[in-house]
């Protein structure tokens, strides 16, 4: 087990990358703590899998270094890195039995037969396949095969890290929840560094201590689920995390106030002058309805989703959402939206701006 | 909707029936006719029952040819299948050299059989052939027209040269269809090169290998042109395989009756072996689907 350090790492699939847009992964410096449970979150094609494959050594980075602990493994082959990885689609050894599939990584490392048997039994219990251990892996259903892949990923105890590349895509919802719980339990028990790639925020937020959000080949934020919710560092994080995502409106920020057309809003802090596109962002959770103050909006519809209500409205042609707690009243005269100043963020060219100091 | 009964549709099948009749059924029936009759020319036939079959089934000449044939097929399969797999594993997977290798590998398959024979016949000649002359110059006593062992080696090397490409190309196609994830998983699991081959590549190649073995078995069991051109079945009868012997009997000695009985038995043997292959293949498929 080891801390994983990515130093000045970047990757392009082209032999001679010209500009930044040729890079699937833009230059990054990150440290992944030993024993952490990380979720790598982002939309399809943002470079999640590339990053994972670089860590496991399946892809050699165009530039930069990968370190396990203090050892530079940039040029080390996959087998030497002692990493487990589970892929999006099941990979099983067809001609082997389920038992042999699970034992394969251990046998390749020349473990004791007694230890292998005990470890395989343990993993089989975990993935719920004790009964079918002597069956051929061929002809099993896709989710059974994926469980074998997961089991094979977890069977080695001494791995430096376990990487999961959207492993639950083919598993049915009930089993998904159970396996995720098992992974979490395994993590608490053995303390492996785990990196879990997904584009499903629920999966990411329930699995990980720290969520790493990637956007367009870049890590835009690395933090706890609470950090991502309270202070998204990038508009993508604001929009991607949360349901519905953060409200973003173009504005002119002037010290402690923001101007939106003819309306003026107080901000929780003072901001210096900024060049570029300026937006203010606020989570729907911190928006409330009022009859007298705030922005005049046109309410288009109200969705009752049980625990709360989502109000969908528009302001000067832009969508605005508010989440109202259960039991809050709705009436036809509530046609204005109020933003809680403490939770308004200012974004310049999509990145969160830091305030100059708290407003008086 | 009412089904229209129209037996005129059968006329649509007639062209195929006629074609198959002329290309297969009628010639085969002629052979059957010859095999149960004796003839002294003038298109006069005398009923001979199963005597020709009995004679052929106990003929030492036929047994010897069959033995040579079985050894030949076994040897070329034992060489071409592993060699073809090995070549396929080492061919470049993409880019210019992949196309180049594919074309290069396909070349022997495009050469007419008698030309292949002629190439090797000249290639192996001690007086003017590149191979024969070089070997002689190196002091190796090689002469495929005199020495049965040399003749066998020449015929086998020729067949390997001619047909390994087929096995290699089939395996290459099979290998290309294996998703990258399998190789990645093998690297993660720290599998050795041999284990990757044994547990990933070989199982995925099983289908194409069965086809390759079936095709190579049938073709090698019926081989005629190439050895006929190179050795003419000699020296002596050393490389007289079944079809060469059959042609000698039918066209050389004009023993049409025994030759016809011989052909039918020959045909049945190939049919039997192919059927066994087919059964094995389909039963494996069924196991797969289970």
Number of helices of chain A: 9
Mean pLDDT of chain A: 85
- Number of beta strands of chain B: 2
Radius of gyration of chain A: 24 Å
Summarize the structure in words.
The complex is a heterodimer of chains A (360) and B (290). Chain A has nine helices and 23 strands. Chain A has 360 residues and is of the alpha+beta class. Chain A has a six-stranded mixed sheet, with helices on both faces. The mean pLDDT of chain B is 86. Helix content of chain B is 73%, strand content 2%. Chain B has one domain (61-289): MetI-like (MetI-like fold), CATH 1.10.3720.10. The A-B interface holds A 53, 56-58, 77-79, 82-85, 87, 89, 91, 93-96, 104-105, 108-109, 138-139, 149, 152-153 and B 179, 181-182, 184-185, 187-192, 195, 199-200, 203-204, 288-290.
Short description:
By secondary structure, chain A is α+β, with helices and mostly antiparallel strands. Chain A contains 9 helices and 23 strands. The model of chain A has no long low-confidence stretch (mean pLDDT 85).
Summarize the topology.
The complex is a heterodimer of chains A (360) and B (290).
Chain A: E1 4-11, E2 25-32, E3 37-41, H1 48-56, E4 63-68, E5 71-72, H2 78-81, E6 83-86, H3 98-108, H4 113-127, H5 142-154, E7 161-165, H6 173-190, E8 193-198, H7 201-207, E9 210-215, E10 218-223, H8 225-230, H9 235-240, E11 247-250, E12 252-260, E13 263-271, E14 278-282, E15 287-290, E16 295-296, E17 298-304, E18 308-315, E19 318-325, E20 336-339, E21 345-348, E22 351-352, E23 357-358
Parallel strand pairs in A: 3-8, 3-9, 6-7, 7-8
Antiparallel strand pairs in A: 1-2, 1-4, 4-5, 9-10, 11-14, 12-13, 13-23, 14-21, 15-20, 16-20, 17-18, 18-19, 21-22
Chain B: H1 14-35, E1 37-39, E2 45-47, H2 51-57, H3 60-90, H4 96-110, H5 113-123, H6 130-137, H7 148-176, H8 180-188, H9 193-221, H10 225-230, H11 242-252, H12 256-289
Antiparallel strand pairs in B: 1-2
Helix pairs in contact in B: 1-12, 2-12, 3-7, 3-9, 4-7, 7-9, 9-12, 11-12
